[in-house]
Amino acid sequence: MILLNGELLDDSAAALDRLPDVIEATLSAPPLETETVVAALDAMADKLASGAFDQLVTDPMLRAHVRDAVGMLRRDALEARLTAELGERWMTPYAPSVPPGHRRVQIRPVPLGTVLHIAAGNMDAIPAFSVIEGLLTGNVNLLKLPKADRGLTVRFFRELIAIEPRLAGYVHVFDTPSTDLAAMRRLIALADGIAVWGGDAAVQAVRQAAHPGCKLIEWGHRLSFCYCTDLTAQGTAFQDLARHIVTTRGLLCSSCQVIYLDTDDMADVRQFCTRFLPVLEAVAAALPPEDDGTAAALTLRQYTASIEQDMFGTADDVFRGHGCALTVCEDSALTLSPLYGNVLVKRLPRGRMLPTLREARGYLQTAGLICADAERAALTDSLLRCGLTRVVPPARMSEMALTAPHDGELPLRRYVRYTEVE
């Protein structure tokens, strides 16, 4: 399904033929004001809160993200984010103070122009989230949908354009498959910037295809983990970690793939698994049941993981529970887990933290930290020096903070050009 200038179309080739003229007409008109976008998104939050999308949102994890989206699309939240990332003036020209004798110029933030968003399919909300960032900064946005999109994104933007028709020229959605290279080249040729979400292959393909001068906004694959120095932690830390593992299923960049223990003794690792597995299993059992399709997919994935573990491990390596498992590993490398409640557990003494984690530099994102209060500050500093961009308690590993950076960046700044005017 294609959304072009507010219209639903079926013919991709015809839509691509019309697209250059539509973009040129939009860029030739008076620029899109941030207030127009903020007001429309605030009204959209009301629609989400009223349940207008409930029939399309059946997955529990997606429901949680929609609930978060309601708060993040409110006017006060959007204005707080704009201020945090673009400054008090947002997209308004300003003249910085300079010492006497230096030339004073006006700095004028302007949109990149046209941004192509190539969204990943690991979370349904990502395509809309990416385009919203482009809209807040006044760009024309071309969205290439992931294969797994189930109609939620097009519905979202149709509703948004119905609220504010002036946005029709700023959002164009294509369901073009990545294998349609001719169509992808046409979309890329129109872009002043490309926001690409996905793994190494997707990012590398865009780098090779982008024309010189096109700004690349890369949101690539990331890995996250929990670091635990308190192997007998009291309170809710283990329950919080278990809830995070089960609810995110390992599918997000912020999902815990490995539980690292501050020890060099494999006996400590197995004792931890013996203690933690019942917690993980209890959390999995207490959550609402999945819909039939999701439950079937989870069962198949877990069954496949158990076969692989039996083939390549020993019985002592895997602590298997109902709907979840902990796999003990001899190595300390940060790698992807089997997902869906199946997590790797490894040793990582703090003295070996830097060389081990630096092996995954460029992929590091979130560390959930379980430790004594007295050592939290020092361990946080150590993890940040290793290259992590977030250090939080386990309960916060996949929570989106309103004004927080994303993968070490303030995203809205990447969609803006800062120009000099005198």
Descriptive overview:
It contains 13 helices and 16 strands. The radius of gyration is 23 Å and the shape is globular. Strand 11 and strand 12 form a beta hairpin. The protein folds into 2 domains: 2-220 and 407-421, Aldehyde Dehydrogenase, Chain A, domain 1, CATH 3.40.605; 223-396, Aldehyde Dehydrogenase, Chain A, domain 2, CATH 3.40.309. The strands form 4 sheets. The chain has a 7-stranded mixed sheet, with helices on both faces. The model has no long low-confidence stretch (mean pLDDT 89). With 422 residues, it is of the alpha/beta class.
- Could you name the ranges where pLDDT drops below 50 across 5 or more consecutive residues? none
The helix fraction, in percent, is: 40-55%
The radius of gyration over CA amounts to 23 Å
Number of helices: 13
Number of E-type strands: 16
Sum up the overall morphology in one term.
globular
Strand order of the largest sheet: 11-12-13-10-9-14-15
Order of helices and strands: EEHHHHEEHEHEHEHEEHEHHEEEHEHEE
CATH class category label of the largest domain: Alpha Beta
Name the beta content range.
15-25%
Secondary structure blueprint with pairings:
Blueprint: E1 2-4, E2 7-9, H1 12-28, H2 34-49, H3 60-72, H4 75-86, E3 106-111, E4 114-118, H5 126-136, E5 140-144, H6 152-163, E6 171-174, H7 181-189, E7 193-198, H8 200-209, E8 215-220, E9 223-228, H9 237-248, E10 256-261, H10 266-286, H11 292-312, E11 318-321, E12 324-328, E13 342-347, H12 353-358, E14 364-370, H13 373-386, E15 390-392, E16 416-421
Parallel strand pairs: 4-5, 4-7, 5-6, 7-8, 9-10, 9-14, 10-13, 12-13, 14-15
Antiparallel strand pairs: 1-2, 3-16, 11-12
